[in-house]
Fold each of these.
Amino acid sequence: MEILKLATEWAKSEIFSTRFFIFFAILFLIASIGFWQLGKTDIARAYIIPTFVAGILLLIIGSGLLYTNIQRVSQFEKDYTTNATAFVESEMVRTEKTLKEYQTIVFKAIPIIIILATLLIIFVNTPTWRAVSITTIAMLIVILLIDGTAHARIENYRQQLELFSK
């Protein structure tokens, strides 16, 4: 029963964390509206669409993760009561897969995209491309911050699962 409590606490922590995607999505959307209503210069007007798109993307990410983790909490108890050993094994497989995805996407691909966006700022001198690059960097930093803490949580969860499987 301790493993069920651990899994549920992990999922609830993920639910709390994914709400930050939605929070930052709202901030990006508010910024887009602000640029639309108050932007007088070319660079300010150039931020309208990129911040709107970043807000929508973060909203999709946050909503998807929130829904998935809410479903996961209710499914944990069913899976655990059906077969506790299979539950632990499936969670170990899932966490291992997720950790590999973090290594590939969050800690390799996102920094590369940030570097490319930075190079775009340096070499392309149009307001639109600068706004796109800066907004992309801001959005990816938000993702790195949130997923960095999620990575630490899932790594700790994986270690706890290993203790229970022995």
Note: The longest helix spans residues 84-123.
Amino acid sequence: MSEPSKWDITVEQAVQVILGNDFLVRGPAGEVLDVAGIARQMEHVWSLVVVECIVCGTFTKRSVSMSLGSRREPGRSRCSSCFALPLAPWQDKFFEAHRLTRDHGGYARLGERVAARCIDCGAERKVSISELKSGVAPCLNCAEATDPDAVHVVYVMHFPGLFARKVGITSTEVRHDRIASHVAQGGILLDQHEVPNREAARTVEDFVLRAVRDFPSGCTARDFPQGGYTETWSDDGPDIDLDNVIARLARNEEPGFDRLRKLRAYFASEPATIEELVEFRHIETIEVDGVEVHQLGFSEPLEQVLRKIRARRVTRDVEATETA
């Protein structure tokens, strides 16, 4: 120490307070430092020294005042990683519940992104427990592999910290919610609308990106670890009204929005039967002028109902042909 006379303990005692039986300190070449070498790094009781856990090898910083000020239970390691080690199995199970295998030894902080592999498709990514708890899609690859004929959501978000806006699409399944992924990274949801299928969602996304192509955001993949930086534009660009965009594209029966017309043309010659439709019935009770009224409708959008009925007919015809 530079001025050992200011200390109430000896250099050796100060070093032992920091190291105890848990840590060691290495020099620039990786050599283990002796008391004198460690003391040269300590000017005051609050001077931090980089120490290495002798059990797990984790590096951390400690000082005399920090060590004296922390209570220590007999037999308990002062290494936070070793102390938290029993929590690692819980974290492994948490990842498995989200269909991920965690590739990280020991405990990780809740906000720390760790390597993980999708159990279903094998895709790799880095994600934290905090992000998964906030609703981030566990696997971006699986999120893209959802049923292309199912209802999708088109959304517009604002990222104030990046001075950018973004358009994107996501499945309506909670597990594949890309909106939550962006909110976890500081995004603010401005607008969202459902469209009948992924093709329609892509049509809307492409239309928006063409409308804002003269206002690049300058964002990179580093700004969007959750993916999607190529669908951004500067927030001083034009505002996007998704309702008007979707209404225009649907009116013109652009790709994805023309499927209902095609389905209706198919069923015009072969109408759906009561037996085929009954599975999709939905009864809602409302009150009108004090009288309960039962409204009968579909549990899903008409396009989805007709699509599923036609798919079942095709499957039935194929099975009939194979057994003929």
Note: The longest strand covers residues 152-159.
Amino acid sequence: MIGVWSESWRDIWSRLAKHPNAPEDLFCELFRDLNLARSAPLDPATELADIVDKPEQARLAFRRTKAATLKGEVALLDFMERAHGVVVDLGGDPLANRYFMLTEAFLNKYNLRYDLRRPYSLNPTLPGVFARLMRDLKDATAQDRHLHALMMEFEDAVRDLRVDRSAGKIKTCIQKQVNLLEAIGRLCPGVTANTLGGICDQVGTWPHFKVKEAMKYLYGFASDYPGIRHGGTPRNSIREIEMRDFVGITVLLAGFAPYLTNLINSDTVYRGT
């Protein structure tokens, strides 16, 4: 949401203000709530009071509020939800329904991964959670030169599938992803092991030993299947690697990342920062 906040004036707020039930002081109250989402809120008794006392000035201040001045995604989502209460108080159900419909169209227009539910709550979706996990993992690895290089190698391998979806290229993707997980696992506090299997035994983050075993089995697969991490054991392979394996195993391995590192905050993965 915060990435397209600048577009919301045209698609949501200016249109909302044109509704017959929208009062003149709509932005006085909305800006009062938006101020709570700012990184450096205006003083309620001075600067803010002066702005919200004049409808045109409040409208201009609301419109000029940049994403960079806001605390982050969660603060913005909280404002959007609080704004619904403001709209209900000022314009009743007709104005509130207009706000709901404008937000829903906005989410669809920019393919934002939130599910809007009545009366007005913005809920993360599964695609959104997974996309955020990968984004946060990329952001975390960017802070370390070695991890950044491994992430770039993994992403390059994935891009290579666009023109060549051979078994060899798919094996490379899996190999690069396992290498990345192994590297981030080595940086987890208390870990001294060098292999992903050993790291799994030391991280101490598992909710059940079967979850740990699942990760270790995937690592065992990558080590034993011919041509992924090692020469492997040919007699143990049932068939040649194909695209379904790329999709399935890549998603599975990504899902284990929060167990192998403290660089990812799972609460923010769910709803932002």
Note: The beta strands are 114-117, 121-124.
Amino acid sequence: MKIDLFFVHLYNDYSGSPRVLSDSISITNELPDVNNKILFTSNDKGFLSDSEIDKSYIFYKRSSNKILQLVYFLLSQVHLFFLLSSTLIYNKLKFRDKKNVVIINTMLPFGAAIASKLFANNTIYYVHESHIKPSLLKAFLRKIIEITSDHVIFVSNYLLNAEEFINPSMNVIYNGLRNDFPSTPIIDGYSKFNSRNVVFSGSLKEYKGLNYVIELASLMPDFNFILALNCTVHEMNDYFDRIIITENVTLLSRPSNIGDIYQDGFAILNCSIPELWTETFGLSILEGMNYGCVPVVPPVGGPIEIVDSHFGLICDPRNTLEIFEFLTGLSKDYSLWKQYSDKAQDRSKYFSQERYKSNFKMFWNNHSN
């Protein structure tokens, strides 16, 4: 039986979850039983914008006002419910010999889950996150997943253990490297080593440990700190207008040349504060490792499934002195840094796009019927 696929992602931007969904959409082009595909998402620029798939845009706005943001979120779910429901009903009436499968990206789109439960044959959740506030909203979303989904994909074992469900089947599919990155970049070791470029790539959020990155920069004037931030220029300027930054800090808003930045990187940082935000995977760390950047990660969550002490530092980001000593020590010994760099790049190959593609296809073959 042929299958029509309906993908759902609430907010299209340049963060990790839409990037991974974009990869999975590409993979479904190679599945022989998949016929038509539609993506339901917001009309914003992001990783999903260039996906080769029919798109149906849903209402979604963002606001710094928490009450207004909640109102926007609820309105988006009403719109999503009716839009997806009408599409599924039409599809079921017109193509009675087809199976309808809905893949919901992240926990948030509960309107899609309800519509899928009512009018689709199969509901698959793709869960990337663990931190959803307020806790009452998260409890509600978890209940919806428990009631409506047939299968749940998690991006790490940490996340599966943290968000384990009772009824749906559960699988871990580790994220893969971006398919537009070379699988084995050519690295000029001496150039990377001498650059002393320390890269931070992530969201403009305090819980991401940005203050500790800035503190490290002030402690290490001989290093260059490059912050590639998923935000607008206005948001970036507004945030750092309140913070004193040193001359060795470069701020970049959604740079299009992120591969070149990793290519020249000495190290890659993830400074998420464990009590405030536990990384469920660590895509930017993996991408940096692919280019031979030495990783520094917090001691909890998904990153410790990627990094070990043979090629990186696992450390509480608030312990800036330990990070300072680690990076400074590496900068004085090319052979040691190169050893770490080579091992980091070798480890990244475990998370290749080919392996991700193989694991996704295996999941599909086991759970699409």
Note: Residues 66-94 form the longest helix (29 residues).
